[in-house]
Amino acid sequence: MQTLQAVITGAMQGLSEFLPISSSAHIVFSNELYELITKTAFITSKEEEIFFDIMVHLATLFAVLIYFFNDLKAILKDFFVSIKEKDYKNKNFLLTNYILLSTVITGIIGLIFKEKVEYFIQNPKYICFFLFITGLILLFSEKMYKGNKEINLKSSILIAIAQGLAIFPGFSRSGLTISTGLFLGLNRVEAARFSFLMSIPVILLASMIYPLMSLDFNLITTFNLKAIAIGFLVSFVVGYLCIKYFMKLLGKLTLKSFAYYCLVISPLMFFVFEAFYRQ
To answer: Which of 56, 95, 228, 244 can bridge 235 by disulfide, Cβ–Cβ 3.0-4.6 Å?
Structure first.
């Protein structure tokens, strides 16, 4: 792995993990374009690819943990106080349970469709199709937007299902979860906040712990650790800034600009793959 490769992937991960434009799609796009332009493999070692993927996801996990640190501290405090005082109607107690429930639902969906996902990740044309669908969902969610309800058990289950379906590359996790929240009547900021909070255990389990099980640690010394460290830093900084400014923008803007972006970039990348080397 070269430093330029690490910077590109780190930036793509940090930028697209939290914006509703699909991190999996943009990482595949950047990797494929890099190989197309340079005529060299983006990452030659499968083990190094797994390790680097873990590190950039760890970086975005740190970003969301730091940004929502005060929220998480208050949520966890209220959760344990509620258990002690048997106050099971506390808002943060319910929120914690909704997040845990969403993790279980996402995990079940992930296990069911695991083989299908592995097939689609190798076929960028399908990823373009799923990204196009993401754009349509974002667009229609804005047309249905009311923003006058709070998160409850029903909405948390439906948002969790949306998060589970986002394991398909090209479906944006944040895009599907936020849009589902909008369809269900949540306001944009609350939908995004719940989306980011529920991403914490998912990133931890699906993108880090599971890949670690298939990693040969004896090979780590053969990796370009300097490039990986740079990629980690880039992913963290870009991810944190994306959360910070995206949350601010959601109070003023809509998701339409992200919808139009997905609707334009997906057919564009499809024709690139079709024309050059994915025939």
So the answer is: 56
Q: Residue 223 in contact with residue 45, Cβ under 8 Å?
A: yes
CA distances, 88 to each of 74, 82, 83, 84, 91 (Å): 16, 6, 7, 10, 9
Give the C-alpha separation, 215 to 196, whole Å.
27
The encoded tokens of residue 272 equal 């690139």
Contact (Cβ atoms closer than 8 angstroms) between residue 51 and residue 228: yes
Cα 28 from Cα 257, distance rounded (Å)? 22
Contact 207, 117 (CB under 8 A): no
- Across 174-202, average pLDDT: 94
Phi, psi of 2 (to 5 degrees): -95, 160
Q: Encode pLDDT of 166-185 as tens digits.
A: 989 999 999 999 999 999 99
Longest dimension (CA), the chain: 64
Q: Which residues make beta-bridge pairs with 185?
A: none
- Which tokens sit at 93? 């107690």
* Rounded distance between C-alpha atoms, residue 227 and residue 2, angstroms: 6
Residues 74-78: contacts with CB within 8 Å, 24+ apart? 75/197
Is this model's pTM higher than 0.70 or not? yes
Q: Helix, strand or coil for residue 39?
A: coil
DSSP state letters, 139-186: HHHHHT----B---HHHHHHHHHHHHHTTSTTS-HHHHHHHHHHHTTB
The encoded tokens of residue 109 equal: 């969906």
Q: How far is residue 65 from each of residues 33, 44, 86, 199, measured CA to CA in Å?
A: 32, 32, 27, 10
